Amino acid sequence: MLQTAILATRRAVRDALRAEFGGAGGSRGTATPEESGSLVLVALSGGADSLALAAAAAFEAPRAGLRAGAVIVDHGLQPGSAVVADRAAAQAELLGLAPVLVRRVRVAEAGGGPEAAARESRYAALAECANEVGAAAILTAHTRDDQAEQVLLGLARGSGVRSLAGIPPRRDLSGYVLLRPFLSSASQVTREVTEAACREGELTFWEDPHNADPRYARVRVRTSVLPVLERELGPGVAAAFARTADIVREDAEAFDAMVNEQIEEIVEHAEAGIAVSVSALMANPAALRHRIVRRVAEAEFGSELNREHTLAVSALVTDWRGQGPIEVPGATVTRSSGRLVFTRRSGSPRVDRAAASDGAAATARHTDLEIHEAMEE
């Protein structure tokens, strides 16, 4: 019997490894696997997605001149989680993955809710393991279904291009790279495919009860919203959302490159802060102008400006009638001598109260909507 699902997962992994480490068809292949680091680690939960990825990596990595291992993170959030983690580790060893690392973490819930706290703990453990064994890459098993859900949740939040760009297939992190082979534009790997690949490979996967818990918005999107859209608008809606993420991400990367070039030319240090040329901002279309404002606030003050903050600052450029200064999270923005001057805000009770209120609202939104990869943003 032709194992079409297994072939699809292997092809996605093969393409991702070639693109990253070189070989036939590789786009970044200036370094050999030995020069780049010979070990990749699969983030394995025991679910269908990650188990199919682990099996594909075990097959493809040696053919790319790489070794493949696995990391299993036990969050300890469900009864029997240690048993699930140990079973996943045993499956990884049977697949021939080595080393197989199990990390048991303590999840301390923070302001972003339990899902965000678990994600933070998980990625910290993955980074620790990568550094410990000198892995060049960590592979995670997000599928095109996850991407579709991410885009739909981003639309619901109204959070702009970054959310609509979805989960990136590749991301550079400290000392290693994060690869998501099933999210590449060419990949057609969905949740249905990973489950079929496990069946074809006679692999028993774990079904996380959280994936059926309607308290989480991502579960409601998966089990209720997307099926309704598919029924009412026709099949292929989820695939269309995933394609939208690919298109938006390409545009966002182009905009980011333009912003980086602009900032080098129009931003200068000012007394107790940083200044941006008003005329240069005025010459840019709104999309670039707003990105420059947000990038300055983020890079210099660690602040994330929402739409209202960004428009208020931009009005100092496009609709200035002597107003100001503008108070935004972490900074005060004033127009002076043809420049927007950003200075660190020492704090005001009114603004701090508003920021606290905004923070509480943001926490509620994250808890309810639960974006899979908020840390990527």
Can you tell me about this structure?
Helix 12 crosses helix 13. Strands 3-2-1-4-6-5 form a six-stranded mixed β-sheet, with helices on both faces. The chain has helices at about 5-20, 35, 50-65, 80-95, 115-135, 145-155, 160-165, 190-200, 215-235, 235-265, 280-285, 285-300, 305-320, 350-370; strands at about 40-45, 65-75, 100-105, 135-140, 170-175, 175-180, 265-270, 275, 325-330, 330-335, 340-345. It has 14 helices and eleven strands. The protein folds into two domains: about 5-245, Rossmann fold (3-Layer(aba) Sandwich); about 270-345, Uridine Diphospho-n-acetylenolpyruvylglucosamine Reductase, domain 3. The chain is an alpha/beta fold. Strand 9 and strand 10 form a beta hairpin. The longest helix is centred in the C-terminal third of the chain and has 30 residues, at about 235-265. The two termini are about 40 Å apart. The protein is about 55% helix and about 15% strand.
